[in-house]
Amino acid sequence: MISRAVVLAPILLAQAVRVRRTTPRLPAAAGPVSGLVEGDGRPTRLAVLGESTVDGVGAATHAEALTGRLAEELARDGRAVAWQAVGKTGANARVVREELLPLLGPADLVVIALGVNDTIELHSATRYRRDLLDLIVSVRRRAGRSPVVLAGVPPMGRFPALPRPLRDVLGARSAALDAAAARLASLPGVVHVPMPAAMLDPATFAEDRFHPGPEGYRRWAEQLADVSRQLLSDTVRRQKH
């Protein structure tokens, strides 16, 4: 049976070209890519690794983007958090492993935010899972047995910049890649945190209607912080026994 994507290929290609041509190109977040949220005790070392959302596209500074927002959320219980954002606009999972991993510093918690570029590049779920697994293994070799949080692939069916049917096709593919990533949560110390579609509404997007704006990053960081805080507590508990 011929798939819907094949039948719609000419329309999808035309829409993709139009979106690329008309969507504003926003810069990465300005300012330093590392920082410290002050608090008590030795700082918890947070590293966030990934694509344009980790590069801070859609926010003025990293303090308003995913990494800075997540560091602030983790510091709400009084702990100090030293954070590092290691991101590249346009990067897929393989590029992150090959080009960005050498920039990763010591970390007590690693958050990986990927999937949009792998979706746009029409990578299969099998390839994405393999590339993500290779990245996790490489992170572990570099950062030790620190817990890893896999941020869910954003549901691209909710991206306002994408017209239909392109939005539907990329939405289905992003869901397939996210399901593939979720299976990696069977690995010790790896947790997958899906992004609920309901978390996205027009108010959460930047002016390009494709990347999160400050409000989108705030909501995403709150969601990731709940799981991250529990992982850090579990790690401390194991170290005491």
Automatic annotation (TrEMBL):
| Listed SUPFAM superfamilies | SGNH hydrolase
Q: Where would I find the SGNH hydrolase-type esterase domain in this sequence?
A: 48-219
Q: Name one GO molecular function term.
A: hydrolase activity
- Taxonomy, superkingdom: Bacteria
Q: What is this protein called?
A: SGNH/GDSL hydrolase family protein
Write down the Gene3D superfamilies for this protein, in alphabetical order.
Answer: SGNH hydrolase (3.40.50.1110)
Which InterPro entries does this UniProt record tie to the protein? Ester_Hydrolysis_Enzymes, SGNH_hydro, SGNH_hydro_sf
**UniProt KW keywords:** Hydrolase
Pfam families in UniProt: Lipase_GDSL_2
